[in-house]
Specification:
Strand order of the largest sheet of chain A: 8-9-10-1-11-19-12
Helix content of chain B: over 70%
Structural class of chain A: alpha+beta
Structural class of chain B: mainly alpha
Largest interface: A-B, 65 and 67 residues
Oligomer: heterodimer
Largest sheet of chain B: none
Number of helices of chain A: 18
Strand content of chain B: under 5%
Helix content of chain A: 25-40%
Number of helices of chain B: 17
Chain lengths: ~550, ~350
């Protein structure tokens, strides 16, 4: 008994000693790697993962968009932060009919998928039909597409049910990136009308990619990392990195430390605290890129939910009570004041200078006119630490004190994201502070705020609510169906001016997403649709 | 009752407990005012009744509640944990991936805290009220009261960002290609694949989080060991042993420590369970892809098969660890085995 115990103790001590020796001897060199001349070029990106799936037909989240954008080429694309000029990708040219109902694309010749299969017009048709028929997260992107024709292997024709001018912007999304139909059909994929029940390819697409992009998916370990390697069959110049490792690092503070110490090349989930601390850090560059996102205050127009706040005069009072300059100072560098609900990145938005300004006397007068006694309410919001670099929990406190300054009594009701989201989607927020991010780069994304549409309904704001509501809904319809771009921009501006002056939404600002990268990494940009364009990044 | 029957009975008790656990977590996911549709569908899809219906049908959420749970329980009896709504993989496969990472971390942390705290507790009791004792008491108090989350961040700040001794958070450096998945324990898989670079890199990554995670156990076990030793040292048989002329060392180790260890075993068992379920924060600070991170993700996406799967695994570990502790009692004190 005693000897066996002694040998056990000895064995344990030995194991400990080995662990410690191994742990300590190597710890002197922070970056162990193979000899320099054979070392692969590894690009490491830190992100707090938002990935529901890597199957393009089933995902539209931020992190998966970034990954899929470098794995799947879409028909068109955008360069860097620019979201105005669509550039050729899988399509080299396109023709849009005069009524904006027929889009004809000429496909790039000689493109092969990573598998070696040639990319043809049939793949495009199959991909789009699969997205539509899966009825999953990105299906709405192709709602306007009624039918797809393939006159020959080099051309694809999309017929729309009504005029839409934003289809090019939509087709840049990684969710409609072109898939290798032949390979995927062998792996359980289906694009028929019953695809939502028949398609079994998601598991395959979470482990392998099937695109024409510069990189291919090597491994996806949920909650841990995604590893990409070069696509040997890529049609353009080869990507700069041998391996791209995208790591799930949920803590912003940890991301900050890692980019500072050089074990991350790019950190994309940082808050204002981390960015301020990183400024002046040797070897680190910080940047903030404007995001096509609108932060707004939602007020419920339905008296059963909104109470006193459903009164248009009270809604106007909120508009004039907020200290917008103070809010901008709070939400970080690069944020831009919005007059209406459309970010300034898009034609059709109204200049910041035309936004309502704080006027507390006017707000107080409006409250007096409303004659409702003491106005009390609650602001609901998601208490997640940051959203696009904005600390919402701090922002709502500012709004609370601004409203108190004109005599409103506001309580704060912060809950976890899913809980808050549910209440908001069920149109049960009395007052809410939320943001709407563009799913594709066009002003048409933001018509959801119109009465009776997705976000309008969440504010209990229907078309028949008032003559003004009816008018705004009509303007929205005119704007989206106008084919002439100058006239369309003017209609969007009319919509914006009306939203600015009236209604249960108080637009505040568009944020700038802060991120940091090592100074030897070039070409890092961030756009709000797919984040960092990994292909454009090179490491010296 | 023989030891075998005792063990068998305890193992069989797991079955009704599993149903309790799964039923409770299933009921909780139904009671909260959120559903999986909101947590899993995007803004536009959630506004589209067709997409919502397709989602509900696919995951069986359109069936009556008792049918949903009944089907789950029946499958569980056959070893099928269902499919995770958020990862779209069988929950068993997810658990196989995330669980070893947590076990690797928790076992190392527990080994560290036991190996340090037991000798510390014994010596501290033997040298009661000396400077060494005071020092140990402060250390154990600090260990119990410092939040692991904070200690983790400070650890990274000092040893990784400041001194450069520790590697960055994560289980493996980005430039090291992981070995093929066999057991999920990186050190073992590295050995199996003959990849010494993986073994050393994985061990280096393990050191700091394991030390941080061990702090709580270290504090509480040291305190328990010291207290229990003080009690034992006041017993008559200790005085007898000393009177017989045994050396201090023999009295302390052979007579006192062995008896003093018994209540401490319970604490060690409990703290292992605590380590497993309490790794959520450590894992998030150290970007350690284990059960804690998986549980958090599953909870925020209302992924009930995954939530139930995690509950089942943690409950089973608790039961098994307590069983081991009870069996160990018998070895530490044969009188307990007789009873």
């Amino acid at each position: 008994m005693r000897t066996s115990r002694r040998s056990l103790t000895l064995a344990l001590a030995f194991l400990m000693a080995v662990t410690l020796v191994v742990g300590c001897t190597n710890s002197a060199s922070p970056q162990p790697s193979a000899p320099a001349n054979t070392a692969p070029k590894v690009l490491t990106i830190g992100a707090s993962f938002v990935i529901k799936s890597l199957d393009p037909g089933r995902t539209i989240e931020t992190t998966s968009n970034m990954i899929n954008h470098s794995v799947y080429d879409s028909l068109v694309t955008f360069a860097g932060e620019d979201l105005k000029t669509a550039l050729p990708s899988m399509a080299t040219e396109w023709k849009i009919s005069a009524d904006s109902k027929t889009y004809t694309f000429t496909l790039r010749q000689g493109v092969k998928f990573a598998s070696g299969n040639p990319m043809t017009a049939d793949d495009v048709k199959w991909t789009f039909e699969r997205v539509k028929n899966l009825k999953s997260n990105p299906a709405f992107l192709l709602n306007s597409v009624a039918s797809i024709e393939v006159p020959d292997p080099q051309h694809v024709v999309l017929n729309l049910s009504e005029s839409h001018t934003d289809l090019l912007a939509i087709l840049s999304s990684a969710s409609v990136g072109i898939l290798d139909a032949k390979l995927l059909k062998q792996n359980g994929a289906d694009a028929s009308a019953n695809a939502k029940d028949l398609d079994k390819a998601e598991t395959y697409l979470n482990a392998h990619s099937a695109g024409t992009g510069p990189y291919v998916l090597q491994t996806y370990t949920p909650e841990q990392e995604v590893v990409l390697v070069r696509n040997p069959n890529y049609w353009g110049a080869a990507g700069n990195s041998d391996r791209v490792v995208i790591r799930n690092i949920t803590e912003s503070a940890t991301q900050k430390l890692q980019v500072e110490a050089g074990s991350l090349d790019i950190a994309i989930t940082l808050g204002p605290d981390q960015i301020n601390a990183l400024k002046g850090s040797a070897g680190v560059t910080t940047k903030a890129s404007p995001s096509a996102t609108t932060f707004y205050v939602l007020i419920n127009n339905n008296p059963a939910v909104g109470g006193a706040f459903s009164n248009p005069k009270v809604q106007q009072a909120v508009r004039y009570a907020l200290d917008y300059d103070g809010i901008l100072a709070l939400v970080g560098l690069g944020a831009v004041r919005l007059a209406g609900v459309i970010p300034t990145l898009f034609p059709g938005s109204v200049a910041s200078s035309q936004a309502p300004k704080m006027d507390r006397e006017k707000a107080k007068a409006l409250l007096k006119e409303a004659n409702l006694g003491e106005v009390k309410g609650a602001i609901s919001y998601s208490s997640d630490p940051t959203s696009q670099g904005v600390q919402v929990s701090v922002l709502v406190q500012k709004i609370q004190s601004d409203l108190a300054a004109v005599g409103m009594t506001i309580t704060l009701n912060g809950t976890t994201r899913a809980t808050a989201l549910q209440e908001y989607r069920d149109a049960k927020n009395q007052i809410g502070v939320w943001s709407w991010a563009a799913d594709w780069p066009d002003a048409s994304n933001f018509l959801v705020f119109a009465p009776g549409r997705t976000v309008g309904k969440r504010a209990g704001w229907l078309e028949d609510a008032s003559p003004q509501a009816k008018d705004i809904a009509d303007t929205a319809r005119k704007a989206e169906s106008e084919i002439d771009s100058a006239k369309r921009a003017a209609l969007y501006q009319q919509f914006e001016q009306k939203m600015r002056d009236f209604g249960p939404f108080v637009p505040m600002f568009q944020p700038a997403v802060p991120y940091a990268f090592r100074s030897n990494v070039k070409g890092v940009t961030f756009n709000s649709v797919w984040g960092v364009d990994i292909y454009a990044v090179s490491k010296e | 009752m023989s030891l075998h029957r005792f063990i068998l009975r305890r193992v069989l008790l797991i079955v009704p407990m599993l149903f309790g656990i799964t039923l409770l977590s299933f009921a909780l996911t139904q009671l909260v005012p959120v559903n999986a549709v909101t947590a899993n569908l995007g803004e536009q899809a959630a506004a589209d009744p067709e997409a919502v219906a397709a989602f509900r049908h696919h995951w069986g959420l359109d069936r009556p509640l008792h049918e949903q749970y009944g089907a789950y329980a029946w499958n569980l009896l056959h070893g099928d944990f269902g499919v995770s709504i958020s990862s779209k993989r069988p929950v068993l496969q997810d658990l196989r991936q995330f669980f070893p990472a947590t076990v690797e971390l928790a076992v190392t942390a527990l080994a560290l805290s036991v190996l340090v705290s037991i000798p510390l507790g014994i010596l501290s009791a033997a040298r009661r009220d000396t400077l060494f004792d005071q020092f140990t008491r402060v250390i154990s108090l600090v260990g119990v009261s410092i939040p692991v989350f904070w200690l983790g961040l400070i650890g990274i700040l000092v040893f990784y960002a400041g001194l450069g001794w520790a590697p960055p958070p994560g289980r493996l450096s980005a430039d090291i290609v992981p070995p093929p998945f066999v057991t999920g324990f990186l050190v073992l898989d590295g050995l199996l694949a003959g990849r010494i670079d993986v073994v050393t890199d994985a061990l280096r990554h393990l050191v700091l989080p394991a030390i941080v995670l061990s702090s709580y156990g270290l504090g509480i076990i040291t305190r328990m060991m010291r207290g229990s030793m003080l009690e034992v040292l006041a017993e008559d048989y200790i005085r007898t042993a000393t009177a017989k002329g045994l050396s201090n060392r023999a009295v302390l180790l052979r007579h006192a420590a062995r008896n003093g260890l018994i209540p401490v075993l319970t604490v060690i068992g409990l703290s292992f369970g605590g380590l497993l379920s309490g790794t959520v924060v450590t894992e998030s600070v150290f970007a350690w892809p284990g059960l804690g991170l998986y549980a958090f993700r599953s909870a925020t996406s209302f992924d009930s098969p995954a939530i139930m799967g995690v509950g089942v695994v943690i409950a089973m570990i608790y039961v098994l660890v307590n069983l081991v502790v009870d069996v160990l009692y018998g070895f530490a004190d044969p009188r307990i085995r007789m009873a």
